[in-house]
Records
---
Amino acid sequence: MYTIVERQDLLPKVHLLKIQAPKVAAAAAAGQFVILRIDAEGERFPLTIADWDVKAGTVTVIYMEIGASTRKLAKLGAGDAILDFAGPLGKPTEIENFGTVVCVSGGFAMATIVPIARAMKEAGNRVISVVGARSKDLFFWHDRLEKYSDEMIVCTDDGSAGIKGVVTEPLRDLLASSTKVDRVIVIGPSVMMKFCSKTTQPFGVKTIVSLNPIMIDGTGMCGCCRVSLDGQTRFACVDGPEFDGHKVDWDGLLVRQKSYVAEEAVAAERCRCKEEGCGSHG
Amino acid sequence: MAKAGLNRIDMPKQAVAKRIQNFSEVATGYTPSDAHIEAARCLQCKKRYCVEGCPVNIDIPEFILALREGDMPEAARILKKTNSLPGVCGRVCPQETQCEQACILNKKEVPIAIGRLERFVADWEREHSAEVNLPKSLKPKSGKKAAVVGAGPAGLTASAELARLGHDVTLFESLHTAGGVLMYGIPEFRLPKDIVQGEVEYVKSLGVKIELNAVAGRLFSLDDLFKQGFQAVFLATGAGLPLFLNVQGENLNGVYSANEFLTRINLMKAHSFPEYDTPVKKGKKVAVIGGGNVAMDAARCALRLGAEEVSIIYRRSEVELPARKEEVENAREEGIKFHFLTSPVRFLANEQGKVRAMDCQKMELGEPDASGRRRPIPVDGSEFEMDIDLAIIALGTRPNPLVMQSAPDLQVNPNGTVAAGISGQTSHKAVWAGGDIVTGSDTVISAMGAAKRSALVMDEYLRSL
């Protein structure tokens, strides 16, 4: 069992958990993830490591309530425990002094990109962060990202903060400006990563994306998370999750992510019935 | 070829119509009277060919004699002396090519049903473990620490042997449950999971500590184990990396590797979705590509999920099928269709990106290849389309490279297996390896045999320190 030592509600549906897992904390690196299983009936699902504390022996994950399992997780708080917590998984982000690195994030990935921005900064890079959200109420960990960024560019769909529009626009402006960009890293919803990759491609700037396909074991034994890269099949859990965004078959990935939409709806409905006590589901 | 029936006692089974509706064990096991009649046929040979045929050299005539004399605790003790997983082996070993093939009776009539008797004794012991506390014959503590990586059949066997020999053993497992392929691969209807867990508990009772969720190559490297004070390591991470066909459309929704399909069902209990949270696709027309035991298991699982038609697609002919005859027979009885000399060339999608059909071509057999089996050659112009809504690829597996990536000084063969000598010695002086990580996908019992040989050599090494 892995004890939750702290919970923070960052947004109405986005929560942070600090979990006691000293060995995982000691081995973690930027860009890696964990696989959780809440209870004996639970499914295994991946979450990116947002932070870790070797001394305290804790690993921090941030997640959004989107389906049955994340809603189940949202019922737990400090003092509760989850059954399984395996990690760190995946290859760590390639960290080097590239020169200027642009870190683009959206949604709750604005937290998971922080360890990457930190590692890039510590490696001597000039870090420019581009953060996007629908509106200004959906920002969090802004201060943390700012700490490791030489420059911060904020965008909102509704214009309530920063530039009005999506992240691809300032990204294109940056690449077209006199700033020499050596590497772009994008973490966020697949559609955002796809369009950021399309934005950077004409400029020939290496663009790393952190893919989020469906996973089960997370150790390379099933191929559920397979993605096509320039026609070659790769397993995101062991070969990634970070890949060259210019090589990813985005449409294939987007279709595979929707494999279980019908089943997810059944599970979510069952979850809702249980919460509301409709009585027809044990 | 086994001579049918004669005087060997048949295994009672669930009726076909009933068993395809459930995931319960198909073979229901000998009754005490079945077991006694079968045991009475054993000639108690002086020259024990059967023991030589067993990869872990169980004292077969002795346990059969104890059973015959009604001394069940003694029969169980004899089994457990050499085999920590008799309930598993009695069920999944290919006895027809091992102990039973070597049985002297095989020359004239039919061999003793050694596997079924082993299973009978193991099941008896499990049901009576509370009142019959078998002695564990543990050697005095050596004060030496050994790490075993991977809790499949090889890892469990090596751990049990090393613990019996007096060493302090920690077993590291990447999944949330110990058992390896016994838990995620072989379905409940061939190997009930409570039997596997019962045998895991037995291994723990010998003093083995099991650390779950411990992913070798990520959470720790081989060097980390030595830094933590382990003095010898046994690598048994198996061959879990699935092979794909590398044809067009293979990444469509509805195309599974057998490992994924079986893991969802066996380990995650997706057949009980939504009581369990993991979903699995239930196809109506299912194609399983491959001809081994894993293909049979996947096909029979798909049928039990409610498929109308399940087909095995195999590129060679029936003679070359690598699956156990008994499993092919079970699959046939259950209505699985077989398409021999057939190979997929591409998968076709519907407008939602889900598989709707598979283009196949017919094959003919040419000269024998490196494996000694006749090589399939495509027949020109023989392409045809088969309507399917689920495909499961069961072409075999290779060792997972994760562990090896974390141990650069470990010598690895071009096919991804770890290079190891007969007792499992690797290029690293304190590291042994055994089971599928060395041989590529093979049987449970050969993995256990390899583990046992390594444990004995590791014992010598540890004592020499």
---
Amino acid sequence: MKVYVAIKRVIDPYVKVRVKSDGSGVETANVKMSMNPFCEIAVEEAIRLREAGHADEVVVVSAGEAACQEQLRTALALGADRAIHIETDAVVEPLSVAKLLAALVKQDQPELFILGKQSIDTDNNQVAQMLSALLGYPQGTFASKVRVEGDDVTNKEGQSINVTREVDGGLETLRLTLPAILSTDLRLNEPRYASLPNIMKAKKKPLDVITPEALGVEIKNHQEVIEILAPTQRAGGIKVDSVAELVDKLKNSAKVI
Amino acid sequence: MTILVIAEHDNHRLGGETLKSVGAVSTLQQSIDVLVIGSQCQSVIEEASSIGGITRVLVADNLNYKDQLAENCAQLIAELAKDYSHIVAPATTFGKNLLPRVAALLDVGVLSDVVTIESEDTVIRPIYAGNALARVRSRDSKVLMTLRGSAFDAASLGNTQAEQKRVDIAIGNDLSEFVERQVSESERPELTAARVVISGGRALGSKENFGLIEQLADKLDGAIGASRAAVDAGYISNDFQVGQTGKIVAPELYIAVGISGAIQHLAGMKDAKVIVAINSDPEAPIFDIADYGLVGDLFDILPELIDSV
């Protein structure tokens, strides 16, 4: 089966983001960028499915500015077979990303599409669900375990996939008919690192660049970001010297116990 | 102008987050309908009907909706959408799974994890793990939102009875099938609704030592939370994780024990009224936001604290 993975270039999760003073956004100049951590997990899962003999091709896709190709190369170095860059400088909201990905799916018919559950910049948690809706496919969101039924990857008849999802209060397992869309939760796997030889090899792997127009998708903005604000800072606290002092403060100053 | 609130429930009880959602949209001063989708969920319908301030309860009670799977539930909501200007759901795993699917069927966007509703079309929502806030205006004809429960007051359950209206649309689902559910049992208050939360991190060192967190929680009638490190180390199951990728809590008192305070964790608890940090590292970032910090070995401090509260 063919597995598609969507990846997003975001500000590195360990960078402390700074809101611009004019309210126009967060500071991105000279800030380290990386692959969204949930997308790394998606890439890893796809590669594991291929290693287990369930997948025969892993394709990675990213939509955005030219620099996204860095993250696509990273995914190729991790083991993806080929990459597609949907190049656009526009702000692409979740629904637009879902439409772009849906157009690719209609052309290439992958049996499985794995996405991260949310990107750590916009924190939307929407694209996988929207993509599933546009295609009329089942969705396995917040997946922490994926099990493919039937080992014969060439036999697509009647294949299904079991997905254990992280839900509030526990875990839930669903059986989805293929083709299906998955979104990854943190505990699905531990992503590998790219080795230097694989980084070199990745430079020779195919990376196709296409435009939203070529996919017949018009990028529309459903939302207008009026302003980006810094959250209110908490007033600096104090350090206490003993448990007795702490309990006294909680009882008598804060009055919370 | 009518608002549809999607109720979260388990076919027996209404989820508390639904009341928060109704409370959140009540500021818009529109009539509010609550939609209950499920199977044999009469007790939920009764409970939902008594939510203060709502007009009607729409009831889609059908075997097809037993497990409330996104595939057919989203389609049902999309079919009901024409009568509504706003469709909202709690920003729980249930709401997050469902609402974006509805949105794509309607060709509109979703405002995720809203913390402030400023007007009919403008909200504030956190981005970058809560390190920035975005004031966003929807340009869509219908506004879809998931609402962060910890940011809103719950609507009350009253003596009034809202009108109940049956929805006779039975949509099947041959795309997905429910297999099983593993529920984490807990006698303690629910994490997202608790007045006091005690969270443990990697420094606890073992599952057994996490018992100290439980003892303190029981003393304070609080809920237990955890950092991702504690969950990954297997000290506690992942539905106790507090943070950007776990639960968002805003209790009156949050006690972080052996948690360094990575930004992903802070995203889940920095709106607590009072934060206490107990950590052996005086440089740990958690002390930057803690109202009261105590530097020291948690294995000395915790037993003493358990004895003195």
---
Amino acid sequence: MKNTVPRSTVKKLLSKHKPHLRMRANTDLLVHLNVLLFLHRLAVETRTNAIAEKSKTIKSRHVRSSAKIVLKKSRG
Amino acid sequence: MTRPLPQLLFFLPQSLRRHYRPERARRRGWAGNSSAIFALRRLQKGAAMEAAEAVGRLSDTQRLKAAFHYTVAGLCEEVSQDKEIQFSKQTIAAISEITFRQCELFAKDLEMFARHAKRSTVNLEDVKLLARRSKSLLKYITEKSEEIALNSLEEKEKRKKKSGSRKGRRASDEQEEHVVAESDDSNMA
């Protein structure tokens, strides 16, 4: 994984969702950190799902079922 | 006349029955009918003292937990009558424990929300913010808060009218009667 943060992309995405919301400096970095943590949680959950089903590869249905749970848990 | 006490024991609560020992009663001469009553009184006094001591020994959290348990049991009773399902005692205890711990989380969250808004008092808005995660709950709480706001507004208006009526007595009495009649109509509708 490369170590650069796609700052303009994060800003663009946020401004697309909430056009009138203004961000202070360096808030996008914290948003990016949140995204990384979310991905980590999703990966862990998906892997436990796959192991529970005794499959050696992660399949789309594992991701779907775990995404439901992780998205619910990471609501603000 | 040999054993009058065991019959009397049926009137005693379960917690007091264990205090009664027939051998000891006979030895102390409590076996007669009149002395049986004295014995019961003695037992009750002792039990009451014990209970008072036990309550005194309980800490605040334990009392709070007991209150939670009582309320939860009442609510469960309602649900069981409504759905015709019975709750086991363990279930009720588990629900009350969950409620207790959830309240700790709620309190912390509410404090943080109020502090975030640079307030030291928790507001209705904070409570709404607490319930934002589930849509149905948010809707319900918003409706309730609107109801509360309306009620408080009405009460304020009533107070204003009452304070106004004290200044001019007779005319305002008629006005008040009108107000009462109107409010009755609204209640009926």
---
Amino acid sequence: MSGIEQNNTGGTPMTMIQALRSAMDVMLERDDNVVVFGQDVGYFGGVFRCTDGLQTKYGKQRVFDAPISENGIAGAAIGMAAYGLRPVAEIQFADYIYPAYDQIVSEAARMRYRSGGSFTSSLVFRTPCGGGIYGGQTHSQSPEAIFAHATGLRTVMPSNPYDAKGLLIASIENDDPVIFLEPKRLYNGPFDGHHDRPVTAWSKYPNNRVPEGYYNVPLDKAAIAREGKALTIITYGTTVWVAKAAAEDAGIDAEVIDLRSLWPLDLDAIVNSVKKTGRCIVLHEATRTCGFGAELVALVQEHCFYHLQAPVERVTGWDTPYPHAQEWDYFPGPSRVIDAMQRVLED
Amino acid sequence: MSSPQIPATSEPLHLHVPEPSARPGQATDFSYLKLSPAGAVDKPPVDVSASQTAPLTGQLIRVLDDNGDAVGPWAADIDDAVLLRAMHAMLKTRAYDARMLIAQRQKKTSFYIQCLGEEAIAVGQTLALRDDDMQFPTYRQQGILVTKEVSLVDMICQVLSNAADPLKGRQLPIMYSYKDYGFFSISGNLTTQYIQAVGWAMASAIKGDTRIATAWVGDGATAEGDFHAALTFAHVYRAPVVLNVVNNQWAISTFQAIAGGENTTFAARGVGYGIPSLRVDGNDLLAVYAASRWAAERARSNLGPTLIEWVTYRAGPHSTSDDPSKYRPADDAQHFPLGDPIDRLKQHLIKRGLWSEQQHDEVRTELDAEVLRALKEAETHGLLGSDNRPGAALMFEDVYKDMPEHLRRQRQQLGV
Ligand SMILES: Cc1ncc(C[n+]2csc(CCOP(=O)(O)OP(=O)(O)O)c2C)c(N)n1
């Protein structure tokens, strides 16, 4: 059961934006070492409003604007973490995280290792990712594979407000560096890939309640977003909703695993499900070749080989830059998932 | 149609690629350094504005003159004890480097980097700081550790990657990390630590602490983007940090002009960012100490960052993997107009009656013996490639705080 379905009573209705803001609010309150900064994060409250009101509440020493310098933001955060703070730094779009890549991969990810454990990088880089918003090439990317590939990092991506808050709190508390990818298509409501239908707001969605105070959703634990017996879909972020919609649309009893933590991941959840169903699809928005799906396929092959009744399929973004006009030809929507399910079930 | 003022034809463009004035077999023209006489440069108040320091960035702060006398406004009072400590630390750093170089040639380790000729900078600045300040060094500031009297045995164990290596064999030799001594973990990736130092200093300010940070970079590595980020952040947040640029004229084989040093100075860059900046004789221990103290006082008084360009010369090869005779005159260091930092301090100390040639030789001999003893002791814990090395299981630790399942499996696969 995903967190959101376990917790549909109590709590307060929140969008993912409000849930993320609430997580930072809770942690700023609980831990004096937590600081929040990034471009437009302070006075203005973030271009997506995720830090709205936090500077007023906690002051400019705790929540502040940063220059437009992703390597600077990342490097400064690493220095702060070396001092003993717990920075939560925002990169405005995941598409703009590359200038910080050296700092994240060469520095944050290896700090504990290279210093024999004496210096650490307990920090979080929050960044909005993913497409489905007509964001074109530089407001749509899903760069999770390049972080999952970097040893020493944790890569996390929530799919709903409850998990977003709980996972962000867990990430801030965690002593390892965390890349916290936020699917911006889910900020205001769930999105199942049916772009031609009216959008649902999180407020219209029955399971949107989020506790006001402190709680966490453990890292390295997947959630079963939909139980099923026919096949397993391993996915995360926006495509969790796509997978569920595809299963409903096609009337196929798919089990949908929402990984939540991409790496390190919950291998047991994957193995248990695929051993049960014998068929598997991995689904993500990111481009295919050397995408994170390749690692998922390899793990399934290694651990479930004798249980597999069909080749493992990948439904992903095409190996192209993220286009603008062709958004819905690119985005792996429900019809592509249904086609893949039918192929996997035929074998 | 172009405007009639613009000539229809012109000379073809050509790309300017800077060159040093001399290559092997020739003699360097050091006039590009634009030296000032000792004592000639003003000492501004610590609350000076960046623009007021602009004239200083084209000059050179020097205290010791050619006779070894301390002159001018930067000739601040320095305790005799500090000067003697500086001499001791510089000699020990040089002895350490010389011995490690031999150890590398004897294949006891794979790699080493000396700081020959640059000893005064790290030593002098360290003596001007508090023990609990945090320095973010490059691989060429071993003088910090020596000044702080970190165990040589411990340092050598790191260089030898042996069973007693504090970094458990994971790091290339000389990439030390000594948190308890205010020495930040060295990274192979140039300039990354420069902006990290600024972040550390920001953290100290956020917490209302009184500690400051120092950042270190070479002339070549100022060209990295992180240098720009560091200066921007340091200025924006008035971070309590000393931004050191060690201009030793060379980045491996590239002359400092290729890093952007032609017809300008690295100190001049700081002013453009709004940071008070100084250009200082890096081979003059008294100038290093005075300028470092000035910058540290600025930082500790909430006056923000200072950039200091230290003008010095990389007298040795870049590393044990480098042969400078392939790209610069073999005798270049002997002609460098700022001389040798140890010789210059020695002359001054002798003049002050604090030192003698005989003492100098005795201390040097003692220090050589001390370093050799430390090496012998370190060798009892093994050499690179010996059986006495950090266990393979250590390879999987500290990647994360707690070892995740996949690393546990990989460790088991290796059978350790
Ligand atoms: C990002 C990066 N690029 C290239 C290198 C290879 N490299 C190591 S040292 C060095 C020269 C650095 O020169 P400088 O900054 O002047 O410092 P110095 O060695 O003279 O002290 C280079 C190019 C590196 N370590 N990191």
